């Protein structure tokens, strides 16, 4: 009966029943035995499942010139009967007011994967992984107003938290009906540019690459999201946290890591996000955060205690995205019409640098860096 209810809700967008927290097998359960796993090329393969899911490969860029950009390929399947692919590019105007962004979203035609499911192509777009599995080259002329030519090269090991980076949903752990997974290249060197009708952006700098898969309807998997990408000259701090809807016990799943130069200091699930101050947003009716504290706690591979904090005001909001109003139609089809689903994304990157305060064993360091963060409210 649970399977029938889940299938019905996935197909037509109805509200899910209350299964309870035991119906999610969080990736945190894997970390007692395996805190994290270093990625191989196999982890980078597109899955292209034949059921409702959204698969993304997202590249975040913090250029040496101060530009903040992300580019993203989205591959989606609706109920196993309709597949689509989109290419998104967003260039943030950090010196402008809220909403002054350059945003492109374009449907892709004749999209396909290579025989190894490692590279992706479509009309006027290629995403190619090199033979070594440590560098992507992305070229797009899909939109004449946004010409993309970027190279991402991994500088520290990629990782998934736990054994496979995946949380599973369903009342029978042996036969889950949904999943959520993330993988991370948290320290990358970026080369290349994006050319719009007004300007060519030299995007040499730092980057983060995150392949992710939501193997179920997004609003069934999560009601809240928090994400931080924090980069200093020496360190990278990454955290992704989502909270399930009451259907799965409002369970928090948090994955994160601290990296230094070419090594992983810590990766795991014992992290926390706290909105230390917020204010009502009149447009969305959500409590927009104005200050957030991010905390990482764990151990190095050698067993030393690790703790890290990024804490401070978020500054002027970069953007507020009404997801249902702006995303492509296929996402709306996946989301369905569910009472209480009102997805908004709040994006931030403070003009004033914040600090990563890190303690490893008895050693304490503090280093300023640039932050990009998102807080998402769904239902």
Structure characterization notes:
Helices cover 7% and strands 54% of the residues. It contains four helices and 28 strands. With 379 residues, it is mainly beta. The N terminus is likely disordered. The protein has a single domain, classed as AttH-like domain (AttH-like fold), CATH 2.40.370.10. The chain has a 15-stranded antiparallel beta sheet that branches. Strands 18, 19, 20, 21, 22, 23, 24, 25, 26, 27 and 28 form an eleven-stranded antiparallel beta sheet that branches. It has a two-stranded antiparallel ribbon with strand order 2-12. The two termini are 25 Å apart. It is globular and about 50 Å long.
Fold topology:
Blueprint: H1 2-12, E1 24-25, E2 36-38, E3 53-63, E4 68-78, E5 82-92, E6 101-107, E7 112-113, E8 120-122, E9 125-129, E10 135-143, E11 146-154, E12 159-161, E13 166-169, E14 178-182, E15 185-196, E16 200-202, E17 205-214, H2 218-221, E18 224-231, E19 235-243, E20 252-260, E21 263-268, E22 271-280, E23 287-299, E24 305-313, E25 319-322, H3 323-326, H4 329-335, E26 344-348, E27 354-360, E28 363-377
Antiparallel strand pairs: 1-13, 2-12, 3-4, 3-17, 4-5, 5-6, 7-8, 8-9, 9-10, 10-11, 11-15, 13-14, 14-17, 15-16, 15-17, 18-19, 18-28, 19-20, 20-21, 22-23, 23-24, 24-27, 25-26, 26-28, 27-28
Domain Svf1-like C-terminal: 216-379
Organism: Penicillium chermesinum
Keywords: Cytoplasm, Endoplasmic reticulum, Golgi apparatus, Lipid transport, Membrane, Nucleus, Transport
């Amino acid at each position: 009966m649970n399977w029938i209810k889940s299938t019905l809700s996935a197909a037509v967008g109805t509200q899910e029943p209350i299964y309870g927290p035991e119906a999610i097998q969080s990736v945190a359960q894997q970390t007692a035995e395996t805190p994290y796993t270093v990625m191989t090329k196999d982890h980078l393969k597109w899955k292209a499942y034949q059921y409702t899911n959204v698969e993304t490969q997202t590249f975040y860029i913090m250029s040496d010139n101060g530009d903040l950009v992300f580019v993203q390929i989205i591959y989606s399947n609706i109920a196993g009967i309709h597949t689509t692919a989109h290419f998104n590019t967003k260039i943030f105007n950090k010196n402008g007011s809220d909403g002054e962004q350059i945003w492109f979203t374009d449907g892709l035609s004749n999209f396909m994967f290579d025989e190894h499911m490692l590279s992706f192509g479509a009309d006027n777009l290629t995403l190619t992984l090199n033979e070594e599995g440590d560098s992507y080259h992305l070229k797009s002329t899909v939109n004449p107003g946004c010409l993309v030519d970027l190279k991402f090269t991994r500088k520290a090991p990629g990782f998934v938290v736990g054994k496979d980076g995946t949380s599973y949903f369903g009342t029978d752990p042996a036969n889950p009906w949904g999943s959520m997974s993330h993988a991370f290249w948290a320290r990358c060197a970026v080369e290349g540019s994006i050319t719009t009708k007004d300007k060519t952006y030299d995007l040499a700098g730092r980057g983060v690459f995150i392949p992710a898969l939501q193997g179920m309807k997004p609003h069934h998997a999560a009601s809240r999201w928090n994400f931080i990408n924090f980069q200093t000259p020496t360190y990278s701090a990454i955290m992704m946290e989502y909270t399930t809807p009451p259907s799965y016990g409002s369970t928090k799943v948090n994955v994160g890591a601290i990296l230094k130069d070419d090594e992983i200091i810590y990766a795991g699930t014992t992290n926390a996000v706290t909105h230390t101050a917020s204010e009502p947003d009149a447009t969305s009716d959500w409590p927009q955060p104005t200050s957030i504290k991010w905390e990482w706690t764990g151990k190095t591979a050698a067993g030393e205690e690790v703790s890290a904090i990024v804490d401070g005001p978020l500054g002027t909001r970069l953007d507020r995205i009404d997801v249902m109003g702006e995303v492509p139609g296929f996402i709306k089809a996946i989301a369905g019409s569910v009472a209480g689903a009102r997805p908004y994304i709040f994006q931030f990157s403070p003009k004033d640098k914040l600090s990563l305060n890190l303690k490893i064993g008895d050693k304490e360091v503090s280093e300023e860096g640039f932050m990009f963060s998102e807080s998402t409210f769904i239902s």
